[in-house]
Amino acid sequence: MTIRLFKQFQTLKLHGVCSVCPLWRHAWSCYSTEPNSPTVKTSIPGPKSIAMKRDLDLIQNTDVVQFFVDYDRSVGNYIRDVDGNVLLDLFTQIASLPLGYNHPRILEVLKDPANISAFANRPALGIYPPTEFAKLLSETLLSVAPQGLTQLQTMACGACSVEHALKGAFMAYRRRERGGSAPTQQEIDTCLMNTPPGCPKLSVLSFKNAFHGRTMGALALSHSKWFHNLDFPAFNWPIATFPTLKYPLEEFYKENIAEDARCLAEVEDKIESAKKAGQPVACVASEPMQCEGGDRYASPQFFQGLQDICQKNGIALLLDEVQTGAGATGKFWLHEYFHLRDPPNLVTFAKKMLTGGFYYTPDMRPTEGGRIFNTWSGDPSKVVVLKAVLGVIKDESLLARTTDTGNYLMKSLMDAQEKYPHLLSNARGLGSLAAVDFPAAAPRDNLVERLRSLGVHVGVCGTSSMRLRSTLTLERKHVDIFADRFNTVLRDT
Amino acid sequence: MTIRLFKQFQTLKLHGVCSVCPLWRHAWSCYSTEPNSPTVKTSIPGPKSIAMKRDLDLIQNTDVVQFFVDYDRSVGNYIRDVDGNVLLDLFTQIASLPLGYNHPRILEVLKDPANISAFANRPALGIYPPTEFAKLLSETLLSVAPQGLTQLQTMACGACSVEHALKGAFMAYRRRERGGSAPTQQEIDTCLMNTPPGCPKLSVLSFKNAFHGRTMGALALSHSKWFHNLDFPAFNWPIATFPTLKYPLEEFYKENIAEDARCLAEVEDKIESAKKAGQPVACVASEPMQCEGGDRYASPQFFQGLQDICQKNGIALLLDEVQTGAGATGKFWLHEYFHLRDPPNLVTFAKKMLTGGFYYTPDMRPTEGGRIFNTWSGDPSKVVVLKAVLGVIKDESLLARTTDTGNYLMKSLMDAQEKYPHLLSNARGLGSLAAVDFPAAAPRDNLVERLRSLGVHVGVCGTSSMRLRSTLTLERKHVDIFADRFNTVLRDT
Fold first, then answer.
1. Is the peptide bond before A439 cis (omega within 30 degrees of 0)?
2. Within this chain, do residues B193 and B268 fall inside the same structural domain, yes or no?
3. What keyword terms does UniProt attach to this protein (chains A, B) (predicted)?
4. Is the same domain home to A149 and A46?
C-alpha cells in the first residue's frame, strides 16, 4: 500500500504537486498568510536587487527600477523583495493590484482545468471569440459597467484603450457630420494617405497635468511630466486648465466654485477657437481625478459643467478611469460621485481591471466591422481572472471596506497634517486613493525613502505629492502600521 | 484503503484533477491528439456560432466575427468551432500561434507551480521586475534576437511595440541633434503643450500598403485598408511606394531591379522634401514583407538600398516583424534573408512571440529613465510561456521543418497555379507564409468560403490575395489535405 501511495505521489509530483508539502501549489500553500508587520533586513534596493539591476541594465535602461521582487513569496498587502525585505505595499504596482499578491481566489482560477485553454490559446478575439464570450463579458466587465454604458471593447493595455476610445469618438463625430451617408470615394482614397477629408482635422481637448498613456494618441492628451513627451512629434490639440482646488474644501468653497467657472469658461473658449482654426473638438478627455499629475481632484459641479459643454457642442466626453476605477474609491467608478445627468460617452479602464478596455454608449458604436480592432484585442485569460476578483469584491464587500479603510487612512493623514503643518498640506483622498503634499520634491522624496526603510512602500505623483494606492483588501490594521511609521519619520524630519 | 484512496482523489479533484480521467488537465489529457483530417458538420458559422454572435452583438459590433471557437478542444493545427466543426487551420489566429492549439509543452508551463506567480501577479515591470528577470529575457527573447540588436523592451501588443520603437528613434535623432547637451528649459516647457521645440516637427517615412497597427502613431504608418484609417486625424508624414514585384521572379529580373531603383529614388526624394518642409524624417519604417497589404515582398537589394539611404541621412531603420518573425519564414526573422550590412536599428515583434516588444541597437537606447515605459510594459507570464515555445522550436528543429513544409506548400500552390492560370497568379511564400492572387476579391472570397466548407480555414489579404499563415508545426501531411481540398474547389470553379 505504501508503495502504491508513493507511486501515486510520484505521478502527481510530475504533474505539478509541490515536493515539500503534498498540496497543490507551492507558492500558495506555503506563503498564504500575510505577516503581521514589515521586515527590513537590508538597504533598499539591497545587494541582490542591485546585482540584478546591473544585469538588466545590459539589456535596457533601468534608471527607474526600484527593486526586484520575489513575487512567489509576496502575499496580500505585503511585497517581498529579492533581498528578503517585506514591505507593506501602498503603491501596489502603480495601483494595479485589486486584491494584493497571490490571492487564494486568483490562484484557484489558475489551477482550475476549465480555465487552462484560455491561457494556452490566446485568440484573435475580434474574429474568433471563445465559446460563450458574451456570457463571460456579461458576468464580468459588464456586471460592473457604469450605468448607461452598454457597449464594451477589451484591449491589451490602458494606452490602447484610450487610443481606441478616441477612435470611437472620431467616428461618431464624422458619422453625424455625414448624416447617414456612406463615406465618399475621396475620403476612402485620402485616408490611406493620411490627408483630409479621409483623415479629417479633428482634435481632442485635454487638460494640463493630465496623463492618459504613452502611445502617440494617448500621449497627445498627456501633459504631466516632460520625460513622457519630450522629443516626440505631437498633435497640436487644445489643452485647457484643470481646476486647482484649495483645501480644506469647506473653507474655500467660494474660491473653488470660481475656479470651476474659470476653467469651464476656458474649455468653452478652446472649443470655440479650435473650431475657428478648422480643427473642431470631437472629444473632451479627462481623468475623473488627475493621478500622475498630482492627485488633482475637481468638483462634481466641474464635471457636470463639462458634460453640459460637451452636449451643447456635440462633443463626446471620455472619462479615463484607468487608475481610478475598479472600486478604488469605494464606488466602482470615481465618476459615480459626480452624479452626471447622463452617462459619459466613453469610460476607459485597465490596471486593477487586469485587462484594458473601454465602455461606451450606443451612439459611439462603430457601424462598420473591424474599425476598433487588433489581432489580440485584449486577452480573455485576464477576464477569466477578473471574474474571481469581482467575486471577491462582492463576497467580501470590498467597496464598503475600501470606504471604511479609506476614511480611516484619511483621518491619519489629516492628523499628521495638523501635527506637521510645515511639512504636509492638502491631504485628500477617496477610498484607496490618497495623497498629501510636501513643500517640494526633495523633502517628499526623502520621506518616502525613509518610510521604505521602515517597511512601508508608497508612491509619488505631481511635483511634490506623496501618493498612496492600496489594494481593496487593505484594513485598518494596515493603516495603523502606515500611520506609526509615517509619524516616526515626520517626527525625525 | 479504498476509502483513503477515494478521499485522496476527492481532494485532488478539488485541486484540479479531471473528474473523467485521473490525470492532471482535462483539456490536455483528453484531446491531445490531432485528428487525421477535418470534419465539417454544419454550415460555418453554424447555428451555435450564429446564436453566440447575436449575443455578442448586443455588446459590440461583430461584423467581422467569423465563428466561435471551442479552444478547449482545438488541438495542434486543427481548430474546433462551437458547432463541432474541426478545421485544418492555416490562418491560426492571424498568424499568432507558434505551435498550434493546446500544445503539451505549453500546457506543462501552465501547470508548473514554479510559474504560477507570474500569472497571478502582473508587475509594473519597469520599476518592480521579478527576480532574475534579465536571466529570463536572456534565455528567451534575447536568445533569438536579431544579430547586433542587444537591447530589448517588452510591450503588451504589436501596435504598442511600434509606438515605443518610434519613440526610441525620435529620441536618438534629437539626442544627436543636441550633441550631448541636456534639453533646454524651453523644450521641457513646450513639450507639455505639444508644441516645438519640445515636441519637434519630426516624421516617419512609411510605405503605401503598409500595416503597422491601429494606435495613432502606428496608424500613421498604415495604409492598407480604408476602414483602418477613415475618420481619424493623422500625422501628415511622407509615404513612399513599396516595390511591386513581377512574378515569376526569374523571368522579370530586370523589371524588378528597375522597380527597386524607382522606389528607392522615391524614398530619397521624400526624405529630401520632408527636410525642406521642416519635418525631417527620423525613422523609416517597413515590414520586411507587407502582410495585410497583400503579401508584398521586396528584394534583399531593396532593403540593402533602404539601409544605405537611412545611414547616409542619419535616419533609423525600423523593421516591423510582428507578423513575419518568430520563425515563420524558416529563419527566425525574415530580414535575415536580406543580408544587411549592419543590423536594422529597431525590430518589433508580437503575435507568435506571445508578447509584444522590440529589439534595438545601443544607439537607440534612451539615456534617461522612464522614457519607454508604461504600467505593465509587457507581461512576464507571456515570456514564461515563450520559453517553452522556443524550447520546442529548438528541440524539434521547427525552423528546418517550416522551411521544408513551406517548400512543399509552395510546390502545391505552383502546381495549382499552373493548372488554373485563369484563377491563380503570383504564388509566393517563405516557410509558413504563403499567398496567391485571384483575379478579384469576389472569386477569392468565394473560394475561401468553399474551402472552409471542406474543412480548410485560410485567410485573405490585400485586395484579392489568399493568405496562408500556418503554425511552425505544420507537416507535409497537412499540406496534402490543403492541396486536395484546394484542387477540389478550383476544379469546381
1. no
2. yes
3. Aminotransferase, Pyridoxal phosphate, Transferase
4. no
